[in-house]
Design goal:
The chain is of the alpha/beta class. The chain is built from 15 helices and nine strands. It has a five-stranded parallel β-sheet, with helices on both faces. A two-stranded antiparallel ribbon has the order 3-4. It is elongated and about 80 Å long.
């Protein structure tokens, strides 16, 4: 791989040369990371290794990729994984509609000259190739490598995991009709998992690993202050405490930090200065997305305000 920006190995943001500086840089982008996460991100950039982020939904895994895209001023290329995803959706496919149109046009104009093999060769050229996220990341040309976000890899199947392992090993892909395509500068790969199933050890071993947990109360308050600065201090603390209590309940889907921010923003939009029972009932859809969870919590809404 070629030398990185500013002569350093890896694609480090300007002003970051040590792991301790990464946390401050992330904070400037309104992302509050603990020392462990900041160090993991620094090492992923410095050592050019994929970063595997695991944790419950809404704790800020995907946001890491978005923040890095802004910090490095480079595109964010996102591959959303799902059950049944394959090479056609992840890497490339041929534009069959354009290929068919090309054939019909050639036949109508009489330009085939009876040479069907030549026409077939024309169909499998760059003109008809559709790049999907992995190929876009591999072929990216720019001062900084792109951020490749492989989101919710736990939703894909075992075969796709094995394919990802091969891609992440050398950042190349072979297209039979064209040849092997290799990245001039490997993308910064961020993989996320919500732990709906265990991801195989082989893929995890290829990456640096960090588990992002729900923050404690004080860190969550600080996150809300940073991301929703218009919220009153009392409201900020009340919401953070309420969400902490929600996570201690037996809910189908406990709220993450993303829901804490959504709830606070909704309350600020309503002009709320502090939390009360009526506001909890009116805005519950901002923080809980399952009817059963909402019903369970609304029966205990006063307990969310206790000690606030």
């Amino acid at each position: 791989m070629s030398e990185a920006v500013n002569g350093r190995r890896g694609a480090l943001p300007p002003g970051v040369s040590r792991s301790g500086e990464m946390g401050e840089k992330l904070r400037e982008e309104s992302y509050l990371a603990g020392e462990g996460l900041a160090t993991a991100i620094f090492l992923a950039l410095k050592l050019q290794k994929p970063l595997f982020l695991e944790g419950e939904a809404g704790v800020g895994k995907t946001e890491v990729a978005k923040v890095l895209s802004r910090m490095l001023e480079t595109p964010l290329i996102r591959l959303q994984c799902y059950e049944g995803i394959d090479v056609n959706q992840a890497v490339y496919e041929w534009d069959y509609a354009r290929q068919l149109l090309h054939i019909r046009t050639a036949e109508a104009l009489g330009t085939t000259g009876g040479d069907r093999s030549r026409l077939e060769d024309e169909l499998y050229t760059r003109q008809f190739l559709v790049q999907r996220p992995l190929l876009q990341a591999i072929e990216h040309r720019g001062e900084n490598p792109p951020i490749l976000l492989i989101d919710e890899v736990d939703r894909a199947d075992d075969e796709f995991e094995a394919f990802l392992l091969e891609i992440l090993s050398d950042y190349s892909v072979t297209i039979p009709e064209i040849g092997t395509v290799r990245a001039e500068r490997p993308p910064v790969a961020i993989l996320t998992s919500n732990r709906t199933r265990e991801v195989h050890d082989a893929l995890k071993r290829r990456c640096l690993y960090f588990f992002i947990d729900h923050p404690d109360l004080e860190r969550e308050v600080e996150i809300v202050r940073l991301r929703v600065p218009d919220a009153e201090e009392r409201l900020t603390r009340q919401v953070a405490k309420a969400v902490q209590r929600l996570r201690s309940m037996d809910l189908y889907k406990p709220p993450g930090v993303a829901e804490t921010l959504d709830w606070t923003e909704a309350l600020v939009a309503l002009g709320a200065k502090e939390l009360n029972e009526d506001l909890i009932e009116a805005t519950m859809g901002s923080v809980l997305k399952y009817h059963e969870d909402q019903q369970r919590v609304l029966l205990q809404s006063l307990s969310l305000l206790a000690g606030s």
